[in-house]
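hey can u check if this looks right to u? its 282 residues, i copy pasted from the old doc so theres a chance i mangled smth
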Amino acid sequence: MGDHVSWSAVHPTWQKTKPLDESDTHAGWAFAEAGTALSSPSGCGSFSGPVYDSDPIHSGEIKFVRDLYEKVGAPEGTRFTVPVLWDKKTGTIVSNESSEIMRDLNDAFDDVLAGADTKEIDLYPPALQSEIDSLNAWIYEGVNNGVYKSGFAVSQGAYETAVTELFACLDRIDDILGKRRYIAGDQLTEADVRLFPTLVRFDPVYIVYFKCAKKALREYKNIPGYIRDVYQTPGIKPSVNFWHIKTHYFTSHPVLNANAIVPIASEWDIEEPHGRDGEYPR
């Protein structure tokens, strides 16, 4: 797949996307300058290697993700979000919806890859599709979006409603993970790929930043091992950059963190053995 679909990361800190227009205050995703080593505010990390390229699509023409949307004539009011699946040949956005992109990458390229011995995993197997769809529905509302509903609540009531639902869902997830290795069964699926990013960011970011402090995920019985298990799955670890995660959140929303101070997170070893390859239920 890597020979057919390349990928590029963006600068972690949102930047003014029309820097020469004082009347346009939009801040969003930017591409880093090629070859630039980006140090964290505390000096604790930097980007290296091929992850960062300046304008990976149009060789200098594109500076911001916003430019991609405007290049294809996105209507006024469009949110300039990531991820974006971009067709380099036709010069257009194929999709900017993560759930659709995930399913496209799972099977839409099967004809292109036929005989390449790359279909090692099916993230949306027919036998589990109903379970995956059911899990995705409540996990998105309660967890993936739940952390944002908690963090950006503008009233005490809205916050308490969101955070209560969030932790009820996390309790439910922990219970499920005591009965099976992965969230939908005995194999890694799309439901895990959707859930994992929120869980892996939870203790380093959401506890503090989004006021989700009722309980740390490392205090649960089954969730910590599950996070380690998914993280240690081949191909997952390279997609997780904790410095990028923390730097983005703590430096991109002045309304939540005016001084852009990146806190030092508690130590938790995501590399230690996950211990989740035994018998279930536990």
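Helices lie at 65-71, 98-108, 129-144, 146-151, 156-177, 190-209, 223-231, 242-252.
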